[in-house]
Records
---
Amino acid sequence: MEIIDGKELAKAIRENLKEEIIELKKKNIFPKLAVIMVGDDKASAVYVRNKSKACNELGVEYEEFLLNETTTMDELLSLIDKLNNDKNVDGILLQSPIPRHLDINEAFRRIDPKKDVDGFNPVNVGKLSLNQDCFVSCTPYGIIKMLERYNIPVEGAHAVIIGRSNIVGKPLLQCLLNQNATVTICHSKTRNLEEVTKQADILIAAIGKPEFVTENMVKEGATVIDVGINRMEDGKIVGDVKFNEVSEKASYITPVPGGVGPMTVAMLMSNVVKAASSRE
Ligand code: NDP
């Protein structure tokens, strides 16, 4: 069994991006990410901090817009418009969740697809499903990079994803399909889940339930990717996979922390650099 070291791989990706950023700066392009946060969700604050740290490390300009809980849709949309029109801003990221009275889909639709570094605008979602060049949402993109780096065959493999969210499960389904995997996607209404997951050559857990995937759900020799980030009462972070027992059976497995999480941030940086490289 080999542990897929997302932390190390993310570091290598950031090192390569540093070189690209130096080249961009020589052409007077200073990549910039704008992050919008509405309200004060604690988990979001941690994610946003990680993104700002990565920007600082790479020399990407970073600006944060903290809107209060009572912000109106008009105010949010006019901020997005302002950032869409700002030639110095390459990437716009709206951190979810946002308060319930706001329509997150409308906000994602408003972000210029060319600055949509999270890949949530329907234009990018559509292009991904058509297998066209686009911004791919960062977590699935990071998973694909991990599989590539560890030479894990995707073409012809049976990939089973547990979870069908718009930010992980669905775009990952498209990414794997584009790479010629046979993909099954499971969710809370799936019958006989264990029978399905046991068929997976590549099993991806994106559920949000601590240690949900147990040894009996995994085929001998499978690759297991754990997307889950579950904060326990004692402050410990646990994935969606019961690492100790599943790692006995898997041929490759990602740890939590140190697996998918750092890759997500690295791929965000990669998308910002891609956006900056195609400035008009
Ligand atoms: P969502 O809550 O949006 O989706 C969870 C999915 O799991 C849903 O499709 C749901 O099914 C499914 N599900 C829930 N219970 C079961 C069950 N008993 N059996 C089968 N399927 C089930 O979560 P996200 O996709 O946003 O996130 C998933 C996890 O990944 C979370 O822990 C999150 O923190 C983490 N995450 C980590 C990232 C990283 O960078 N490492 C990035 C994004 C998320 P249904 O649709 O039927 O309700």
---
Amino acid sequence: MVDKKTRILCVVGTRPEAIKMAPVILALRNEPWAEVRVLATAQHRHLLDQVLNFFDIKPDIDLDIMRPNQALTTLTARLLLKLDDVLTTEKPDAVLTQGDTTTVMSVAMACFYHGILCGHVEAGLRTWDMQNPFPEEANRVITGRFARWHFAPTKGSRDNLLQEGIPEQDIIVTGNTVIDALLMTAAQDIEIDVNLNPGQRLILVTSHRRENFGEPFRVICQALKSLAEHNPAVQFLYPVHPNPNVKDVAHEMLAECPNIQLCDPLDYAPFIAVMKRAYLIISDSGGVQEEAPALGKPVLVLRDETERPEAVDEGVVKLVGPNYERIVQETQRLLDDDVAYQAMARGISPYGDGHAAKRIVDVLKAHFA
Ligand code: UD1
Ligand code: UDP
């Protein structure tokens, strides 16, 4: 008689979830005791698909949830209804979910209702402010209430969970799987499919945070415009997030600047190649705050607070808010002052050593195998 394998359902909804879950899916595939199933909620559509293609992961189930500019309440309600059916038919022994999106919160809640064990990858990140980032802080707090295993990337994230009363034995410090994915990818020789001017310094920009929609995002664009005008020999590359609240304003305010190049989101591997080529990065992305220090690239973060304080404490990431003066001053300083630049361009990796997925798999193996 063949022993029944442990059925583990790995869920991905958006681009960063796919990037950070991919190393776990790939590691689980090598485990003879595990049957890995992949559920794409497809909260993102093409952003998700391109990452899954890159890692050669084909979802077993696809909920095709994305709708243009979908409201958060609608998104949550539709996710819960569809997840109900999936958990009923799939009957997984455990579910893994990654990060702090609406997909993640809905998965954790649906697992709770179904009495299914849920592992939270990238657990314990906190700003202690429910409005910043919105709605991610609420998503991860809620997920933390329901999770059976909390895979914390750093000691700081473990301490946050302890502070919330999560039992110590349920928290495992693993490092962040984003570094596993980065190391798998950054070593490859990747073609960059955008026009980069050789000899010019490159500033890479990304921005998509909901709490910056409206006036703060207009301020960010105004600061970029001023910087570009003042530094005509510097090239700005901005792969614009497809959320219409970002895309429409970015094109309206920046399309005419000769040294700002707006483009569609880059595929994951070319994006990493562009990060390697960049002089500095201006971003409000969580993943970019983790990847850039490992590549020795300074990041100016377009937020007033972060749930990723480790790189800020090391002095290689700086918060500049959606604040015109701070964005302009700090960027200009890094362009003009080589000592200040070198202090931020030290290659350090406070978020992981590339072995996070193995540690996660080992915990599941000890429990099930
Ligand atoms: C979502 C997550 C955010 C995460 C980010 C990563 C929530 C509420 N937000 O933000 O935490 O940091 O993803 O990028 O979970 N769209 C497309 N094509 C795509 C993806 C999105 O057109 O492939 C457009 C659609 O109009 C969609 C909109 O962007 O409705 C917003 O997508 P959504 O997932 O709700 O929010 P994001 O801003 O992408
Ligand atoms: N990324 C990408 N293409 C881009 C911009 C970002 O592949 O044009 C990758 C980046 O390397 C990182 C992840 O997407 O791993 C971050 O996703 P995002 O900024 O959308 O979400 P967040 O990390 O803020 O949740």
---
Amino acid sequence: MAGQHTVLIVGSGGREHAFGWAFSRDARIGKIWFAPGNAGTAEVGENLPLAATDEQGLVAWAAKEKPSLVVVGPEAPLCAGLADRLRAQGLRVFGPGKEGARLEGSKSFCKELLVRQKIPTARAGSFQKLEEAIRFSESLPCPQVVKADGLAAGKGVVIAGSHAEAAQAIRQMMAERLFGEAGATVLIEEFLEGEELSVHAVTDGNNLVILPGAQDHKRVGEGDTGPNTGGMGAYAPAPKATPELLREVKDRILVPTLQGLVDLGIPYRGVLYAGLMLTRSGPKVLEYNCRFGDPETQVLLPLLETPLWDLLGAAADGNLAGLPVKIRSGAALTVVLAAPGYPSVPVLGQGIRIGPAQPDSHLFHAGTQTGRNGIAVAGGRVLAATGWGANLEIARQRAYALVAEVSFPGMQFRRDIGHRALPSGGQDRDRAEFR
Ligand code: AMP
Ligand code: GLY
């Protein structure tokens, strides 16, 4: 029987559109809802007038409609305990409960677990008193890293080049409460050097399925310059993530993390997304996220041959052990199209022109909304153009061919996505052709 399953996807970003896109290609799925979704998700399902953080509204809606699976995209509702409340209604949910989500929601909780499990990570101290934090900071060489303990929308991390800068960041977080209660505790840690790698492991609390290693581009500007963002582009598999490296990440990092959760009696059904630094002395954990990465999801899902329904459903059921998970050969690359002014104050409301679809690619929507005059910019990261193919270079060409079909006033994007992995450095080869 076709189309008997239904899915509720909580969130409104490119990640959630990518989930919806993957589910929409599965004939067994009859209906997809998004809460609240965006202009792109409305094309593959129905957008509900419910914010991702409207816990009461979501629980009431889900208890009535009984979707066959709920996938919670962002960290805020997970950290608030949405998955627990949905499970209490007897629903199948992909995403950890409040306790498990602390891996992302409290950097000191995460660090304690890492240290307890002897998992490689930066040396750090956690403080609730300003004077103690400053004293520790002064004892640590610079650069050093100051982190607000709680969720701060990706802004609570400061790389301090001097002790004065570190002290200022500590004061802003602890005394001035720049990030509210998220800064009541701060973590101060040693600076790690290397390339970053995102490793996603889907888990049912006992078993792990490791997805290809992905690399994000955090800085807004080409050549990795300018302020940090939520992510300006990504690709997978990252050549640095060799089978040997992934085996090491599994054995030394992911398996002991899951064991640490088991020891604490925390059931975890969702994804463990390890943000790693590949240092000269091996991979070390920078942070854990309790949800899929954005824009990493927009490159991981096109590479997933196993239906997303099977993978996330098995994790939600605690039943991953027997599931054969297949990954396609080849590569995928995504380019984020951002609003002017992003990441500080994005300018919103402009109309978006979107040309015809292109082969082996897909345009995932994030900050978009449908208005009277068509689709308009409604968030900092607006769209993610993903291409895929036999190798990274082909994926890159397809992604940028799709970018060429999109425009809105002030659209900004990086022309060098994939530069670490491609011999041409991404953009240089194209330029040479036109010379
Ligand atoms: P986090 O939210 O902890 O991942 O931090 C955000 C970003 O800050 C990371 O993606 C890194 O680019 C950087 N970062 C965090 N911790 C460190 C560290 N110990 N050393 C160097 N860079 C770091
Ligand atoms: N791409 C970074 C994140 O999702 O946190």
